Amino acid sequence: MLIAGFPAGAWGTNCYLVAPAAGEECVIIDPGHQAAQGVEETLKKHRLKPVAVVLTHGHIDHVASVVPVCGAHDVPAWIHPEDRYMMSDPEKALGRSIGMPLMGELTVGEPDDVKELSDGAALKLAGMEFGVAHAPGHTKGSVTFRMPEVADVPQILFSGDLLFAGSVGRTDMPGGDHAELLASLARVCLPLDDSTVVLSGHGPQTTIGRERASNPYLHGLDAPRRGM
After folding, report:
1. Which 3 state secondary structure label does DSSP give 205?
2. Does the pLDDT at position 48 exceed 70?
3. Strands (DSSP E) found in the chain
4. In a 10 Å sphere around its CB, with 0-12 CB exposed, 13-18 middle and 19+ buried, how is residue 73 labelled?
5. Closest-CA residue to 130 (of 223, 33, 225, 19)
6. What are the UniProt keywords, alphabetically (predicted)?
7. With b meaning 16 or more CB within 10 Å and e meaning fewer, what string describes 161-199?
């Protein structure tokens, strides 16, 4: 498996390109602010052909380059319906906190083809499977994408802004809810194996085991019992 990631734009948002191997089809995750050039360079470097863009949530730092990236390659964008409005009205989603000068640099709106994500869906894209889990708290439509363990590659969780190395996503913007975030962490993250690699929306990679042991926001949370 090939996973190529880079931090993009003013917020250093991690954009990931995922493919079975170099020279094959790929999926682009969270092409945010000023990510388009990095996407094109990574596609060229690894000889990749994108088939879809998938979004962990709708904040502008994760979706700002969706229109140019999807348009350049004629691919759809997948997003949870509760965050879809953010692509066209990013300031409403952030409480108008990002400022007009920065907004003037962005292409606001939806790409031509938008598909909606649902909890529990199994997206089969570019010969890979991405398990979708609705994980509200940072936004109402936040999701994670989980890739199962394959051969000697451990299970991977693209956590968006739900879980970071040593921290969690903020909940002080419109649609944020701290209690919902904690419930999502308990339901989505805690049941995963300690070896699961976490690739988040910001900062370095980590593992579920490391966060279970050291992340203060996970302390005192209990994973839901099986069958409940």
Report:
1. coil
2. yes
3. 2-8, 13-19, 25-29, 49-54, 77-79, 114-116, 122-125, 128-134, 143-147, 156-160, 163-164, 167-168, 197-200, 206-207
4. middle
5. 19
6. Hydrolase, Metal-binding, Zinc
7. bbbbbeebbebeeebbeeebbbbbbbbbbeebeeebbbb
Q: In this structure, what token pair is assigned to residue 26?
A: 């790929």
User: 55-98: per-residue pLDDT in tens?
Assistant: 999 999 999 999 999 999 999 999 999 999 999 887 777 665 44
Q: With beta carbons less than 8 A apart as the criterion, state whether 114 and 54 touch.
A: no
Give the span between the Cα atoms of 115 and 99, in whole angstroms: 29
Mutual angle of helices 36-46 and 66-73, in 10-degree steps: 40
Instruction: State what percent of residues in the chain have pLDDT above 90.
Output: 82
Q: Could you identify the residue written with the tokens 């308990």?
A: 186
Strand 197-200 relative to strand 77-79, pairing = unpaired
For the entire predicted model, the pTM comes to: 0.93
